[in-house]
Automatic annotation (TrEMBL):
Superkingdom assignment: Bacteria
InterPro entries in alphabetical order: CoA-transferase_III_domain, CoA-Trfase_fam_III, CoA-Trfase_III_dom3_sf, CoA-Trfase_III_dom_1_sf
Organism of origin: Craurococcus roseus
Name listed for the protein in its UniProt record: CoA transferase
Lineage of the organism: Bacteria, Pseudomonadati, Pseudomonadota, Alphaproteobacteria, Acetobacterales
Keywords from the UniProt entry: Transferase
GO molecular function: transferase activity
């Protein structure tokens, strides 16, 4: 599939749920660009503004042909223009863009855009019904609003970094990170949801909207019952490593050939099946393991018994036995496993596309799937300023001499 970047990145399938909406991104790093990628995946036309040196994510992670493959996905389905917001003349370009956009998504520190002459008053003067989504570390108000923060700070303050660690007393290593920029991504999802909700309200009332998303709060909102448990019982939920604190058995167990296999046998019927499969039906009647509460209380001993059994089988044989017994299970997938997985391929969640900068590359499909609209990306992440002339000339109507002057002045 050849979808090398062209200036038609904004032309979505007419059936796409956000087709016809135009979003301006004043974002950098992860959170705001992730939000706009989701909106673009669902059909919105996204115009990303980045500095002439490029968004920092262009340099993050592994490199191939001088570029970061991450960028191919991070900026897909977007029209990218370069603009130095600190240069005279840049403000007018942004406000001209705002006049033609339904929403703006940004993740600067609170007050930073106002210092550049792009505060809410200026933005709403340009378009009164604009939906503005702001993503920041701590939110737009409160005593910590001006503190610097990245996703990892949000993960720590939001309580996730504490819970993703190994169980207390098992290691002196630092609390374990999830492995991706989960704080930024969750904030981006909430921002995208907020934009869609505000646009729906605007369709009813005609009013714009303000969305305030904090990294810390986005992560904190994921903590299930941890807060009400603390508020009523005074208990502080503790990390449990690979196990689930409220259900057992549910953990990763090592096969004879060293593969970790997750087994979720935490209902009574499933536990009886698993005990029988292990050749130990007596365990299902053992008072320590009768009922979920007893199994959770004795989870460490139970996991030891299951590990002793899984260690006698290679992963393939173990998975076959669990599949035939209809017990929920899976080996722990690497990205290589995902790329080869028939289900992921059949659903279009792993796609081979042609990137104009990198050549053949794999992309994840679009989530969520809406009305069966094809979930292939319309374009891949482009070069810096790839859409300067198209956006400024065709969309804003700037004359070539005006664009040239902006370029010569270092604005573009």
């Amino acid at each position: 599939m050849d979808i090398s970047h062209t200036s038609v990145a904004g032309q979505a399938d007419a059936r796409a749920p956000l087709a016809g909406f135009r979003i301006l991104e004043l974002g950098h790093y992860v959170a705001a660009p992730f939000a706009t990628r989701l909106l673009a995946d669902l059909g919105a036309e996204v115009i990303k503004v980045e500095p002439p040196a490029g968004d920092p994510v262009r340099q993050w992670g592994a490199r191939y042909k001088g570029s970061a493959p991450w960028w191919s996905v991070h900026a897909r389905n977007k029209r990218c223009i370069s603009l130095d917001l600190k240069k005279p003349g840049a403000r007018e370009v942004v406000l001209d863009l705002v006049r033609g956009c339904d929403a703006l998504v940004e993740n600067y520190r609170p007050g930073q855009l106002a210092k550049l002459g792009l505060g809410e008053e200026a933005l709403r003067a340009a378009r009164p019904d604009l939906v503005i989504a702001r993503i920041s570390g701590y939110g737009q108000d409160g005593p910590d609003r001006d503190k610097a923060a990245f996703g990892v700070i949000g993960e720590a303050i939001g309580g996730l970094r504490h819970l993703t660690n190994h169980a207390p007393g098992t290691t002196d290593l630092p609390p374990v990170r999830v492995g991706v920029s989960i704080g930024d991504s969750v904030a981006g999802i909430y921002a995208a949801l907020g934009v869609v909700a505000a646009l729906l309200r605007r369709a009813r009332t005609g009013a714009g909207g303000d969305i305030d998303v904090a990294l810390t709060e986005s992560v904190f909102s994921l903590l299930e019952g941890a807060l009400p448990e603390y508020g009523t019982l005074g208990t502080v939920r503790q990390p449990t490593g690979g196990a689930i604190a409220t259900a057992a058995p549910s953990n990763a167990y090592r096969s004879r050939d060293g593969i970790w296999v997750l087994i979720a046998g935490n209902s009574d019927p499933l536990w009886r099946k698993l005990a029988g499969l292990m050749g130990r039906p007596d365990l299902a009647e053992d008072p320590r393991f009768v009922g979920n509460q007893h199994r959770v209380a004795n989870a460490r001993e139970l996991d030891g018994l299951i590990n002793a059994w899984t260690g006698t089988l290679d992963a393939e044989a173990l998975e076959t036995a669990l599949r035939e017994a209809n017990i929920p299970h899976t080996r722990v997938f690497t990205v290589a496993d995902i790329a080869a997985d028939p289900q992921m391929r059949a659903r279009g969640m792993v796609q081979e596309v042609e990137d104009g900068l990198l050549g053949p590359i794999l992309h994840p499909g679009v989530v969520p799937r809406v009305d069966g609209v094809p979930n292939a990306p319309r374009s891949t992440g482009p070069a810096v300023g790839a859409d300067n002339d198209a956006v400024l000339g065709e969309m804003l109507g700037y004359e070539p001499a005006h664009i040239a002057a902006l370029r010569e002045g270092g604005v573009l």
